[in-house]
Design a protein that fits this description.
This protein is α+β, with helices and mostly antiparallel strands and 228 residues long. Helix content is 30%, strand content 32%. A 5-stranded mixed beta sheet has the order 1-2-3-5-4, covered by helices on one side. Strands 6, 7, 8, 9 and 10 form a 5-stranded antiparallel beta sheet that branches. The longest helix has 30 residues. The protein is globular, with a radius of gyration of 17 Å. This is Exoribonuclease phosphorolytic domain-containing protein.
Amino acid sequence: MTRDGERSPRQLRNLVCERSLLHRADGSAKFFLGKTCVLACVYGPTSTVTRKENAEQAVIEVNYRPMAGIAGTQERQQEHLIRRTIEGVVLVALHPRACISVIIQVLEDNGSALACAVNAACTALVDAAVPMHRLFASVCCCTTQDGELLVDPSSTEEQEAAAVLTLVYTSRRAEVEAARPSISSAPMMSFSSGQCTPQQYLLAALAGREACQRLADFSYLSLHKSFS
């Protein structure tokens, strides 16, 4: 099957990443997956109000804003997914009684917006120099009505799909110089809608891991060029 621009079923769209766009934020990043574009900004670690603070670790707050309209139930679920992902990699114990706020604004949604938002959040956290023991990458996969697996679907493909899954994998720098970053063997987080069989989920997880490896390669190369 060929898709938009003769793209194969497991091919990612063009990747673009821009950092340090907002001067008043501690870190910011704009991430593109094809025409899908998400802006993320990070504030903190900074002091927080007494009723929210945790004496043992930093509190993570995520605000997910859709492209148009006000946030609803779906956006609250997406905030929860992103917050749990960040809590799993940030060294929150280093900043007790502090708050790390991540604000995500969807600028253009042409499919895979949640995955794009997760990637933007990771890049913004790096730009803010928030200490993390691992980075993370996310990709969206969908199963068509005919049972075919598509990676990084467009909005049209998502609407026509039987199931849509957003997978998050962690990555760490390779111990050998010039080697590729190492992707976790299983997703640390997943968010799904629709219905798929266990076999279809496993196939999506494998395809998602391969795609996240390419995303991790891109992120490490982008950061290396930026810091150089």
